[in-house]
Design goal:
The complex is a heterodimer of chains A (111) and B (116). With 111 residues, chain A is an all-beta fold. Chain A is globular, with a radius of gyration of 13 Å. In chain A, a hairpin with a 6-residue loop joins strand 9 and strand 10. In chain A, the strands form two sheets. In chain A, strands 2, 4, 5, 9, 10 and 11 form a six-stranded mixed β-sheet that branches. A five-stranded antiparallel β-sheet of chain A has the order 1-3-8-7-6, with no helix packed on it. Chain B is an all-beta fold and 116 residues long. Helices cover 0% and strands 51% of the residues of chain B. Chain B contains no helices and eleven strands. In chain B, the strands form two sheets. In chain B, strands 2, 4, 5, 6, 9, 10 and 11 form a seven-stranded mixed β-sheet that branches. Chain B has a four-stranded antiparallel β-sheet with strand order 1-3-8-7, with no helix packed on it. Classes of the chains: A mainly beta (111), B mainly beta (116). At the A-B interface, strand 5 and strand 9 of A face strand 5 and strand 10 of B.
Chain lengths: 111, 116
């Protein structure tokens, strides 16, 4: 079935550094979604992308819908302690009625 | 709007006991989902529903049953709990997926279940 490969699986950075993570698929997606899960909470939607090539920002977060429709990127600038958590990419499975999720990128920040 | 709510927040069961987890949404969403998340793992789909009175199996349906008697509610049942079902359970809801405009799922806060 369709799978999303998310990398890196984990990141350990210093406060103030920029962060980049990506999600790739062997299949085309028409939508890319990025979620963040804080410890002990449910995932919260950060950014939704609906057009190939689209670049969308939400504060210090920027996400891009890859031109090939098979990948997406999420960048976080000037990281702060509250950015800690797990970031998931997701997209709708073609012809199905559900989303497929990446395995997540766990972000840890050293103050 | 409360969004997606789940009850209970925490529960401890003994092996063989049964329980029902309740999910409610006030966004008039057609689709609802139940996921489980194990420590250090991603989300795995248990069952989902695309409308009142309809349900379908997800990736890991064994040992669970669901019902969608009302559009705003989606119930997840464990008939005979097993230690392997110790997990965090998340409910989510959305507009119809794959129609190009509103694919986002909105998640509840989770139910932490321990089966001894």
């Amino acid at each position: 079935g369709q799978q999303l490969n998310q990398s890196p699986q984990s990141m350990f950075i210093q406060e103030g550094e920029d962060v980049s993570m990506n999600c790739t698929s062997s299949s085309i997606f028409n939508t890319w979604l990025w979620y963040k899960q804080d410890p002990g909470e449910g995932p919260v939607l950060l950014i939704a992308l609906y057009k190939a090539g689209e670049l969308t920002s939400n504060g210090r977060l920027t996400a891009q819908f890859g031109i090939t429709r098979k990948d997406s990127f999420l960048n976080i600038s000037a990281s702060i302690p509250s950015d800690v958590g797990i970031y998931f990419c997701a997209g709708p499975i073609q012809g199905a009625q559900k989303l497929v999720f990446g395995q997540g990128t766990r972000l840890t920040i050293n103050p | 709007n409360a969004g997606v709510t789940q009850t209970p927040k925490f529960r401890v069961l003994k092996t063989g006991q049964s329980m029902t987890l309740l999910c409610a949404q006030d966004m008039n969403h057609e689709y609802m989902y139940w996921y489980r998340q194990d420590p250090g793992m991603g989300l795995r789909l248990i069952h989902y529903s695309v409308g009142e009175g309809t349900t379908a199996k997800g990736e890991v349906p064994d040992g669970y049953n669901v019902s969608r008697l009302k559009k705003q509610n989606f119930l997840l049942g464990l008939e005979s709990a097993a230690p392997s079902q110790t997990s965090v359970y998340f409910c989510a809801s959305s507009y119809p997926v794959g129609q190009g405009a509103r694919d986002e799922q909105f998640f509840g806060p989770g139910t932490r279940l321990t089966v001894l």
